[in-house]
Amino acid sequence: MFDRRFRLFVRLRSPGFDPGNCLSCSQATGAFMYDAIVVGARISGASVALLLARLGHRVLLVDRARFPSPTSSSTNLIHPPGVHRLREWGVLDRLDGHSIPRITRYRLQSGPVGMEAPLPAVDDVDYALSPPRLALDEALVRCAVDAGVELREETSVQELLRDEDGTVVGVRGTTKGSGRFSERASVVIGADGKNSKVAQLVGAAKYRDQPVLSKSLWTYWDGLPQPSLVRTYRKNRRHPFTWPTHDGLTIVGVAWPTEDFPSPGSDEATDRTVVAALADVDPEFAEQVRDTGRADRWLTGSVPNFLRTPAGPGWALVGDASATRDPITASGITYAVTGGEILAEAVHEGLSGRIPMARALAAYARRRDRLVIDHYDYTRDYARIADHTPEERALIEAMSRSPWHARDMIGLFATVVPPADFYSRANFRALFDYLDDENGLPPKIRLLRWLLHGVPGRPAAPAGLADRLVAASLGPMGDLMLRSARP
Ligand SMILES: Cc1cc2nc3c(=O)[nH]c(=O)nc-3n(C[C@H](O)[C@H](O)[C@H](O)COP(=O)(O)OP(=O)(O)OC[C@H]3O[C@@H](n4cnc5c(N)ncnc54)[C@H](O)[C@@H]3O)c2cc1C
Predict the structure, then answer these.
(1) CB 129 within 8 A of CB 76
(2) Which residue has the higher pLDDT, 233 or 71?
(3) Residue 326's closest CA among 300, 350, 301, 344?
(4) How far is it, in rounded angstroms, from Cα 58 to Cα 259?
């Protein structure tokens, strides 16, 4: 089937070929056949559409919204892998009208212990950004249109077209003002968010799923000092966070485990709840917040966690449609951008005939897994907002004394360092050298160190046993350490 469609595609794109004169084409394609139809025109959809168009493909991009269009909720931090791509694609140039400071360091404070490090670079991009979402979505969609993408706004996809063997070959839906339409393409891409209609229509299975784990309240603050820093805190099952965003504003918020989320009150009552949570972790910052002004109403948001089968015959999912995770690691936008890139590369392989489309989409599915699964597991674990155990705090303290461990930990959070590289046996063995004896160590950590390195006169425990015991003290991330192929 793919070969038949590919031959058709090649003929459609051949110089001098007129689709209007081809009976089989008009039967197969209706009035016009696209190379790709992308459903959903925000971060993931506009990214994949833009890249496919730049590779010379005919792309139809549809969205229910009319742009510029506000999103329901997002705090908009973009880690270096996302910033790097958006800069390369020329999207950041379109945000010129805003002042968006570079954020070069992240800090994690867990009760009395803290760790801060510069962001590892992706090429020369060693900073994060937090642009206004309205402007970012608009910039991406306009870049896509400039690249040749056909954008249809206020257009909703309701059905998929399939050929006789079930392969998806197009979409059917409605456009506001002009009624029902159907369009055909070599591939249909669902970039339509967590409640993806495309995923529902193809029956893409959900797995590794977990209900909503955390809920947050946040808003923008005016007049705060703006260090080039993302600060996150963890104490008493609360997760306060803050970073500079755009035009002099600073985001200030707190996340709770779902079951502890405070019942909604007035904005003034929420001010008090949030300032109290900040005072518990960073009294100086809480004082600054008290002395300055809230620039917006309080916002709230939460999402469940799941992966979906990312591709099948004639279709693929990207962004939140393919993987939705708790916002606690602020990684959805970055993965929507990187996911858009790997999907565009795969679809291009299929469209250009280098490999059959079915194989190209299967390769995308495997790459998507390699890209997201470990960080997805890390995010799910982090989103429980459990206080760190004394053993974990001792390890955080050790990281604060080892610059490269701290940098890798920050890189892990920021999707730069693969979790399997950080949670490797070698990394943790080395980390034990930085434990701080001066301040006393939890007995279990002392024991683990003896097992890893031995005590004078006694040999270390066999490496496998010691590693398993270290992994056991890392909670769910210990599984990652044990499944990490690296020694
Ligand atoms: C509280 C909260 C805070 C967050 N903070 C951050 C953060 O700081 N950093 C970060 O990286 N990520 C954050 N995220 C996650 C991030 O917002 C998402 O991962 C990202 O927006 C996903 O983009 P997307 O393009 O895949 O999907 P979406 O942004 O959901 O876009 C989907 C589009 O599809 C369209 N659509 C849907 N169905 C149809 C249909 N049938 N026909 C036509 N169009 C359709 C919709 O109109 C929409 O425009 C946060 C999320 C939440 C909930």
Answers:
(1) no
(2) 233
(3) 301
(4) 47
pLDDT band at 463 (very low <50, low <70, confident <90, very high): confident
Comparing 476 with 198, the larger pLDDT belongs to 198
Q: List, in order, residues 6 or more apart from 452 with CB less than 8 Å away.
A: 429, 432, 460, 461, 466, 470
Which CATH number covers residue 283?
Answer: 3.30.9.40
**What is the residue with the minimal CA distance to atom 38 of ligand 1?**
192
192 located within any domain: yes
List the domain range (segments joined by +) for residue 460.
390-483
- Nearest C-alpha to atom 1 of ligand 1 is from which residue? 301
Mutate to test the pocket of ligand 1, among 60, 73, 74, 183 (most ligand atoms within 8 A of CB): 74
Number of domains in the chain: 3
CATH for 145:
3.50.50.60
CA angle 341, 343, 347 (to 5 degrees): 120
**Considering only CA atoms, which residue is closest to atom 29 of ligand 1?**
42
Predicted confidence (pLDDT) per residue in 253-308, tens digit? 999 999 999 988 899 999 999 999 999 999 999 999 999 999 999 999 999 999 99
pLDDT at 284: 97
